[in-house]
Design goal:
By secondary structure, the chain is mostly helical. The chain has a single domain, classed as Up-down Bundle (Growth Hormone, Chain: A). The chain has 16 helices and no strands. The termini are far apart.
């Protein structure tokens, strides 16, 4: 019976240019990892508030998440180009388990938060880079947009489930019981490690074949349109991060309870899920560069709403609009990079994307914390809105020139 199912799945994979035996566990894996990420990142902000740390330290902690991975990203990319994507996923999941245990039992000081956040960033680098390469390995050129569409749907499920758990466990408190939330993250990390074990490694002959195929970084960076796409990726990913980090602070400023903060983030994730489910269909109707401009501008409008003194009901409407636009924009930030990359350097290009994301996650939250100290959270959301619109226009112009 198992052989029969293997034959059916294999035939479907050939027919659609997608290997579902690899893609299905990858989608489940993506959902569990994003659940952990959402819980830990939001709970870390609440733990910093619980420890009565100044607002500037929220930016410093977030920068700590980003800096160590920045130093490792290219090395990890080269590792993935040699075919060790599944092994990188296994390692990243093991790091998540150890770090979540540390958050549960030792994150009672600023030093502990900084150290654990740095290690969490390293684990996240291995997981995200490996998942993106596994997504590429699970499909051929014809099925790539569909594979990435399914992959980001799994991510959206996790991004929605994490905030939902925070809202459910936090209830009406302004600051939730962070120890219990970190405990939930630890349970999810153990589950993710088990799911990672179901992902099969690349065949040995493919790993050996890739050993000698190394494309110099200089050659990649000179490629027309790549820098604009990488910068757009930094802006879209960092905007999500800033929303996750500073929405709890907006809640404390405007006396919005944890249940509504979690519900707002869940609304964004559900909207992103809906948009990602329709991603391949929308892409058939609107060409890639126009869709990038439209969705990034739409996300910018959503962020601009949070810079205004709007009521809670309007916040929900703005978050749904923002989530829908950003859901497609973040998917495009992946597929636009893949669209420009050669097969021999796919892992390195994806690592460059992650390097840029990490640099953005290191610098922008720290700068945002300075802005927040001077102008409040509204100033951060206004800057993010302008950055999204400008970056979307840059990608559109660069792709037009390339055409």
């Amino acid at each position: 019976m198992s052989n029969r199912w293997s034959e059916i799945l294999a035939s479907r994979g050939r027919a659609s240019d997608i290997d579902y035996r690899l893609l299905v566990p990858l989608v489940l894996y993506s959902a569990t990892v994003q659940t952990i990420y959402a819980i830990v990142r939001v709970t870390t902000s609440y733990r910093a508030i619980e420890l009565d740390l100044p607002v500037v330290w929220l930016g410093v902690i977030s920068a700590t998440f980003a800096m160590p991975p920045t130093l490792l990203a290219v090395w990890v990319g080269r590792l993935l180009d040699r075919g060790y994507d599944a092994q990188a996923a296994w390692f990243g999941s093991a790091v998540f388990v150890l770090v979540c245990a540390g958050f549960c039992f030792f994150a009672n000081s600023l030093t502990a938060l900084l150290l654990l956040t740095a290690l969490f960033g390293v684990g996240h680098l291995f997981l995200m880079a490996s998942q993106q390469m596994l997504c590429i390995r699970s499909s051929g050129p014809r099925g790539r947009d569909s594979a990435f569409g399914n992959y980001v749907v799994g991510s959206a499920v996790g991004q929605g489930l994490g905030p939902y758990l925070i809202a459910w466990l936090g209830g009406s408190a302004t600051v939730p019981a962070t120890g219990r939330l970190f405990g939930v993250a630890l349970i999810a990390a153990v589950i993710s490690l088990a799911v990672a074990g179901a992902i099969r490694p690349a065949p040995k002959h493919k790993r050996l074949r890739k050993e000698g195929e190394i494309v110099p970084l200089r050659t990649l960076l000179r490629q027309s349109g790549l820098m604009a796409v990488l910068i757009a990726s930094v802006i879209t990913i960092t905007s999500q991060d800033l929303l996750t980090i500073y929405l709890p602070l907006l809640g404390t400023e405007q006396n919005i309870d944890v249940r509504n903060i979690g519900a707002l983030l869940t609304a964004r994730s559900v909207a992103a899920l809906v948009s990602r489910l329709s991603y391949t269909r929308v892409l058939r109707l609107i060409e890639r560069q126009k869709l990038t401009l439209i969705t990034m501008a739409g996300a910018g409008i959503g962020f601009a709403c949070f810079a205004l003194p709007i009521p809670l009901a309007a916040m929900y409407a703005a978050m749904i609009f923002l989530g829908f636009a950003l859901g497609i924009a973040t998917t495009l930030s992946l597929t636009n990079v893949v669209d420009l990359a050669s097969a021999a350097a796919m892992g390195t290009v994806m690592s460059l994307r992650i390097t840029g994301n990490r640099l953005g996650q290191a610098a922008l939250p720290f700068l945002a914390s300075l802005v927040a100290a001077a102008t409040g959270v509204a100033g951060i959301f206004a800057i993010v809105a302008a950055s999204l619109v400008t970056s979307g226009a840059s990608v559109y112009v660069s792709r037009q020139e390339r055409a």
